[in-house]
Amino acid sequence: MNTNFIIRGFGHYAPEKVLTNADLEKIVETNDEWITTRTGIKQRHIAAEDQAASDMACEAAKHALAQAGMKAEELTHIVCGTFTPDSMVPSTACRIQEKLGIKGQMCVDVAAACSGFLYAMQTARGYLMLEPDAKILVVTTEVISRFLNWEDRTTCVLFGDAAGAAILTSGTDDEDAPRVVDITLGADGKLGDLLTVNGGGSAWAYAKGDVVGDDHFVKMQGREIFKHAVRNMCAMSDKVLTRNGLSKEDVDVLIPHQANWRIIDAVARKFEIPEEKVFCNIAKYGNTSAASVPLALSEAVTEGFIKKGDLVLMPTFGGGFTWGAGLIRF
What we know:
The protein has helices at about 20-25, 30-40, 55-70, 90-100, 115-130, 155, 220-240, 260-270, 280-285, 290-300; strands at about 5-15, 15-20, 45, 75-80, 105-110, 135-140, 160-170, 180-185, 195, 220, 255, 310-320, 320-330. The chain is of the alpha+beta class. The strands form three sheets. A nine-stranded mixed β-sheet has the order 5-4-6-7-1-8-13-12-11, sandwiched between helices. It has a two-stranded antiparallel sheet with strand order 2-3. Strands 9-10 form a two-stranded antiparallel ribbon. A hairpin with a 3-residue loop joins strand 12 and strand 13. The protein is globular and about 55 Å long.
């Protein structure tokens, strides 16, 4: 098996508009203390009215391409992770391709909610196994603000809009670049009803003239999700470390899905990873679903939080339910 999956560049983007907890106090019955103590979130970014998921993805992709020293024309595949696509058809990946001004690449969307980045990365690794010369844009992008009920304080305070990207290619053992060591994934569809956006799907279709109902917006059972999230993120982390002959002591940096601080802290405590080794940017962005892990990775690299030689563990959990864990050696 080819294990030399090299990340050539990272990129991220968040919209200009910032919605603070103080701003939310004017919209819904909540306050800064309630939000901060339960989630760790202080603000989130909200897409402009004319910004789609593909627009944000293009900005993140451009940063990743620049870091990789590549032109968009060199790409052979675009894998996009999102549960808030521009449209049902065409795919958001195709829209990204169009907006990058290129054509001919294989384009596909992956829907795994908050686990979207690892699912998209694993998809890209599969393509690289078949086509070792491929140059793949892996990009995750979410405009969750369009799918929030702004009268529901249990959900609208949690989420933000953003995009993250990485350029993945094959490489050699001695390359001085970040390398994907391994990714492991799983899911349990029986738990899917604990976190949904049903409206508009074939099982919850709208007829012409229907009023958009509550099923169009994010619904979640937070307490149940918390238990499953911590349990499965830890289990998948154990699995990916064990099968690579590693232990929790080998982890230099923990970058979990940025769902809320309580989940991040619970996972870190179970793995006995000190807070100074945990990268967390949820206070600035909120839960950006599929974009959260690459956004955090990109920021951690830019800020120098991740050092040469570090082993980075990335556990994640999302609607479906989906979950996974990945390892990158820098």
